[in-house]
Specification:
By secondary structure, this protein is mostly helical. It has six helices and no strands. The relative contact order is 0.07.
Length: 162
């Protein structure tokens, strides 16, 4: 009987189940680490910057005709994406929240394939709608910049386009 108790005690000890309270072993956080996610997301931005750098002047690439409807439609889609990115960045800073912290601007044509060639009239209609969106943000930001300007010259130069 003693031998059986000793063998059982040895087996339990070998398994780490001695019955004594062991120190709590630290466990990994219960989800993704936000610090590591920040690094991962930052890497994606660096990767995209490298893609831009390596394809900007790549031999064999053709410059699109800037007045072609397909090119105008593509540039307009890019403008909407840039607008949404800028609004997102401004919202994250807590600025102009009534304009920037609403859902992204997503006109129905934003996801159309790159080979779609809308008419010039359709592109004009789209451009007018995008212009309304951009102007609303631009006016708010520029008015704020003008109120913070120290001189008349700075006020005049705030958001000067031409």
């Amino acid at each position: 009987m003693k031998l059986r108790a000793i063998v059982l005690a040895l087996v339990l000890a070998a398994c780490g189940q001695t019955g004594e309270k062991q120190d709590a072993v630290p466990t990994a956080p219960a989800g993704p680490d936000p610090f590591n996610l920040n690094i991962e997301i930052g890497r994606y931005g660096v990767m995209l910057n490298q893609v831009t750098g390596h394809t900007g002047e790549r031999p064999g690439s053709a410059e699109p005709e800037v007045t072609a409807p397909r090119e105008l439609a593509r540039r307009l889609r890019e403008t909407v994406w840039e607008y949404n990115i800028e609004r997102s960045k401004i919202c994250a800073k807590g600025l102009f929240t009534e304009i920037t912290c609403s859902p992204a601007y997503e006109p129905v044509w934003i996801s159309e394939p790159p080979n779609v060639e809308p008419t010039l009239e359709e592109i004009q209609t789209r451009a007018d709608a995008v212009g309304d969106e951009v102007m609303r943000l631009w006016n708010a930001v520029c008015e704020d910049a003008r109120t913070r300007a120290a001189t008349d010259e700075e006020r005049d130069l705030a958001c000067a386009i031409e």
